Amino acid sequence: MNELRNQSTHVILDFSCKDLDQATEHFKNASEVGDTEYGRTYKCMIHNTKVAIKLSSSQRLFQQEVSILRQWRHPNIITFIGVCSKVSALVYEWLPNGNLEDRIICTNNSPPLSWYNRTQIIGEICWALLFLHSNKPTALVHGDLRPCNILIDANYRSKLCSFGMSNLFLQPGTFPPNLTARLPYMDPEFNTTGELTTLSDVYSLGVIILRVLTGMPPLTLSEKVAEALESDSLHLLIDKSAGDWPYIEAKQLALIGLSCTEMTRKKRPDLLNEVWIVIEPLTRKPPAATWPYLQSASGDSSVPAAFICPISMEIMKDPQVASDGFTYEAEAIRCWFDRGNSRSPMTNLALPNLNLVPNRVLRSFIHEYLQQQQQQPNPAYQEQLSKT
Question: Dihedral of CA 50/338/306/299: which sign?
Fold first, then answer.
């Protein structure tokens, strides 16, 4: 953390109103990509560089955010390029994959994040919070940690943004805007005491972990996950669109997410000594899938996991091995390539090539398996069998 902080000094550019006006074509609506309580955001080009320009909703918010971003740089905190103080505008790097909220709900029919991507993102958020909380002499608290304030770059790496709003919450007589959307992520003790601490961020992180794991709405999510763990039915809550989650990893994430969302701060884990030591090992090379069962889109829970395409979540008819070593349904992986993707759907690493090799052995096993099911009909298979 200290090494990162020592390397964090960087030049902040001063832009004129004319610079921003030309870049956005007089702030045309066509350039606008966001309008929130933080301000309006525009996508444009400045000096042949694609950037995002945010017109802050207030001078105070602008000053708070600049004071934080001007000091530090971190791989998982949005890169701050410059300002135009006259119109309270901040200029950031442009991240093409939107925010984590959009990726969780697959806005505009975007492909779902793989379980490996999701684990990496959780680790990156945790690392960025450790950096903020280790600030001396006073820890920096984000205070508004939500999926919509976590941006995703072209390589599906995450970066925190929207700093400073939390400080406005503490002003006398003020209330957080858009409270309904914020409430599920807000520290319950903050709601009663008005005090933000690093453990407030830990609570928000816990909700995000459970959200990324399940894909479910945040309200009462911790209660649902706790019930699922108690009844040994966690597999029913896991977001199947993410692929075949390793069982041990999924359970670890569920447990650490629940511990972070304890109602009282004194019961929440320490971010470094209790949360990071669990999450950091999970961000390394992905382990082999170890779910004891996998529920396919057809509703059957006893189909061997190796027979399921990790993209379509259906029994494969024409299994093909991609250059990442994983096997996919031919039509699903070709559609993945046709959308311009050149990275593995499972690991997000760049594929050496887009070649496919038929997995004839697996295809033979699947064919034999389906024949057995036809000889011993089971109503749960009828729709799937009719497709194959």
Answer: positive
Residue 170 included in any domain: yes
Catalytic annotation present for 144: yes
Q: At what angle do helices 247-260 and 115-133 cross, to 10 degrees?
A: 30
User: Could you tell me the residue range of the domain that residue 63 belongs to?
Assistant: 2-93
From the candidates 144, 187, 239, 244, give the one annotated as an active-site residue. Answer: 144
SS3 336: helix
In whole angstroms, give the CA distance from residue 91 to residue 41.
Answer: 10
Tens of pLDDT along 121-135?
999 999 999 999 988
**CA-derived radius of gyration, the chain:** 23
Query: 154-177 pLDDT, tens per residue?
Result: 888 899 988 766 555 555 455 556
Count of alpha carbons within 13 angstroms of residue 185, beta-carbon side: 24
Task: Report the CATH number that the domain containing residue 75 is assigned in CATH.
Answer: 3.30.200.20
Judgement on whether residues 75 and 117 belong to the same structural domain of the protein: no
Q: Residue 142 above 80 pLDDT?
A: yes
**What pTM value is reported for the model?**
0.70
User: Is 193 found in the same domain as 47?
Assistant: no
Specify the 3-state DSSP secondary structure of 120.
helix
Residues 273 and 343 reside in one and the same domain: no
